[in-house]
């Protein structure tokens, strides 16, 4: 009996040590970046904006000044989440194109970039095709045409364009090759190419390139289960840009999904939301509440999200989120929105949402047809696999559910604890 007790204590200590080893984050690492009064990036943008705005007021038809202010408005959208800046930037870029006597392709690309941010992908493609007709800067246009082709599900054209811009020493090529590898389900290659892009960014010493690369590679590391590496790169981002909301959100997600610490994750989200006001955070807070079993808080945060999306002119930027929300409470509304989203961009990811909406609307046979025709074997996204499993299960195809369930267990961090509870019930 004594030996059994000793063994039990040893196992308990070992278990505690294991839990400590699993912990990745440390409050001392990220706490300095949660000071909500410190917004150096936004402050620098506003200071620069003041200079160019004064020039523009003196000469309202100056293409140079218009272009500068439009770019700064776009930056403010990224830094604050205020979508008004994005729409103001759009109008200024349209005026730049109309007024410019040369470099029209440049303004078409800038406007296309704005449309991509608004999820107006078809309109962005039209602009880029027009820009491609100009004799200059075709490489820059090809890069963006690749981006929009991926968003529209035109993977054959995307592949062709990737071949046109091939240059293993070029940052812009490497990050797109990484994205292509991820689309093909080759996460190891996606990480390898992003690491090569990171090396290029660091050798060039351009902070904006390093920041972009660090946050993106951190996401990939998370998907691969390399949580320590993900955390490290979010911190590297914050060292360069202390008010980077995306990196803070990434750390909050690690606290929730890996360390099961929703209260600390909530604390970080609260600090972000003071200065970066986008609807996404309400859904993340809803998920944290769901994890805690606080259903009234879940409903409250989901309603906050819906109100935030409808109060501002976001267009179709949050359709995918709304489809999943409405699928439970208003399936016909979700179905109409999903059909609209597929029309906007027909990708396996939008089709899996359509199938999910069809299933929730009581159309399980239609949902199965959608999955078999447009999703199965065409995407490696865990959420698509989960919705596919729900459709298969509803149609009595349990033989297809088991292997998907095993696959989803490998993506536990990416899916999060709340969704993994649902996976266990498949």
From TrEMBL:
<feature type="repeat" description="TPR">
    <location>
        <begin position="211"/>
        <end position="244"/>
    </location>
</feature>
<dbReference type="InterPro" id="IPR019734">
    <property type="entry name" value="TPR_rpt"/>
</dbReference>
<keyword id="KW-0802">TPR repeat</keyword>
<dbReference type="InterPro" id="IPR011990">
    <property type="entry name" value="TPR-like_helical_dom_sf"/>
</dbReference>
<protein>
    <submittedName>
        <fullName>Uncharacterized protein</fullName>
    </submittedName>
</protein>
């Amino acid at each position: 009996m004594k030996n059994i007790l000793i063994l039990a204590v040893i196992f308990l200590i070992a278990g505690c040590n294991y839990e400590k080893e699993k912990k990745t984050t440390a409050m001392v690492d990220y706490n300095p970046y949660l000071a909500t009064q410190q917004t150096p990036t936004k402050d620098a943008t506003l200071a620069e904006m003041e200079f160019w705005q004064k020039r523009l007021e003196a000469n309202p038809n100056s293409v140079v000044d218009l272009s500068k202010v439009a770019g700064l408005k776009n930056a403010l959208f990224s830094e604050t989440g205020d979508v008004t800046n994005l729409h103001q930037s759009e109008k200024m870029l349209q005026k730049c194109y109309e007024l410019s006597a040369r470099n029209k392709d440049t303004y078409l690309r800038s406007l296309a970039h704005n449309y991509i941010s608004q999820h107006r992908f078809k309109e962005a493609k039209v602009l880029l095709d027009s820009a491609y007709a100009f004799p200059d800067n075709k490489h820059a246009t090809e890069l963006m045409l690749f981006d929009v082709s991926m968003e529209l599900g035109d993977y054959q054209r995307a592949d062709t364009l990737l071949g046109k811009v091939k240059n293993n020493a070029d940052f812009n090529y490497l990050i797109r090759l990484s994205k292509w590898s991820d689309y093909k389900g080759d996460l190891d290659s996606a990480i390898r190419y992003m690491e090569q892009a990171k090396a290029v960014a660091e050798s060039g010493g351009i902070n904006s390139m390093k920041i972009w690369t660090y946050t993106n590679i951190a996401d990939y590391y998370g998907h691969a289960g390399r949580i320590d590496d993900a955390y490290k790169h979010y911190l590297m981002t914050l060292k360069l840009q202390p008010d980077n909301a995306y990196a803070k959100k990434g750390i909050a997600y690690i606290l929730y999904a890996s360390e099961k610490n929703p209260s600390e994750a909530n604390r970080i989200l609260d600090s972000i939301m003071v200065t970066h006001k986008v609807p996404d955070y309400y859904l993340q807070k809803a998920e944290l509440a769901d994890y805690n079993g606080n259903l009234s808080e879940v409903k409250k945060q989901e309603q906050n999200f819906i109100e935030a999306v409808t109060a501002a002119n976001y267009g179709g930027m949050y359709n995918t989120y709304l489809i999943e929300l409405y699928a439970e409470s208003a399936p016909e509304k979700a179905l109409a929105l999903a059909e609209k989203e597929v029309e906007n961009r027909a990708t396996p990811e939008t089709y899996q949402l359509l199938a999910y909406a069809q299933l929730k609307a009581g159309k399980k046979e239609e949902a199965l047809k959608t999955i078999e025709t447009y999703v199965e074997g065409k995407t490696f996204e865990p959420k698509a696999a989960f919705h596919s499993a729900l459709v298969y299960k509803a149609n009595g195809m349990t033989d297809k559910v088991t292997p998907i369930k095993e696959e989803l267990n490998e993506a536990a961090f990416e899916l999060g604890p709340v969704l993994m509870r649902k996976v266990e019930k498949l």
